């Protein structure tokens, strides 16, 4: 539920048949058989007990408060074995922490972070009220646990925001993410956690293996390394010690005129990591019968925001794909040093 377009779950559950539901889908996914376009507060097109397991990760808090009981009713109705809700709830200072993190983003980029803004406007759900509603209305067993210490969550979110506009630091930050996943994740619980998990089991036979460790169990050396990594990225970002002007990065446009992509039929311009590209123009006047275009915005890890792609008087929106690992609100997150944007020119009428 609320899957967006990432299909991340099948990376963890490779042997399961997974369907993805969202209230809005980009054009290229509307005919994808794995996707269902529907409102999760009223999934009338889905019959009762269709799915063994229904999962809603970081979705419940985005449902308007007056529709949250409808949402819970629907998760119960369409699930056969269990349903899982995970996300932030209004307890342990979570709301205040989200406000601080959003203000951090706003001070750096001049606008609210869209998802935190929605959390604040909707008001985070109350955990006790949610659990009590489930207990009073459904016949099932409930397990509830939490993860992600609020302190670490705030530090990591601020770090991600700090380096979002710096391609070189993105690569460094990904190393920190890998360190966290390998050495911190299993122990990242405390008295004040960011995310709660509510597991609603209709069979009452499920035996959960939840997180056994806590922040206190992390050895001092591991904690010290992680803390140093956090601080070092902020230092590099603030002091701008990276020699960006010596970069060999470039932007490159590949032109497919029916014979595929090639280096010979491309246009390349060198750019610096300090370059803020508000607009970039390629001259295609001598290029006829263009079938497809591939834009390589930089030969490095990057986060890219596309405002508009225009050829002559035609604006391209629906015919754009990318090798990004995550796409959200026009932002393309690339975990490869060879980011690519594909424009299907011949698809438009």
Can you walk me through this structure?
This protein is globular. By secondary structure, it is α+β, with helices and mostly antiparallel strands. It contains eight helices and 16 strands. Helix 7 (167-184) runs antiparallel to helix 8. Mean pLDDT is 86; it is low at 241-247.
Strand-residue fraction?
Answer: 15-25%
What value does the Rg take, in angstroms?
A: 23 Å
Helix % is 25-40%
Strand order of the largest sheet: 8-7-9-16-13
What would the average pLDDT be, to the nearest integer?
86
Q: Which ranges are low-confidence, i.e. pLDDT below 50, for 5 or more consecutive residues?
A: 241-247
The coarse silhouette is globular
Order of helices and strands: HEEEHEHHHEHHEHEEEEEEEEEE
Largest beta-sheet details: 5 strands, antiparallel
Structural class: alpha+beta
Number of helical segments? 8
Overall strand count: 16
**Terminal Cα separation, in Å?**
34 Å
Structure characteristics:
single chain, 349 residues, alpha+beta, five-stranded antiparallel beta sheet, four-stranded mixed beta sheet, 23% strand, globular
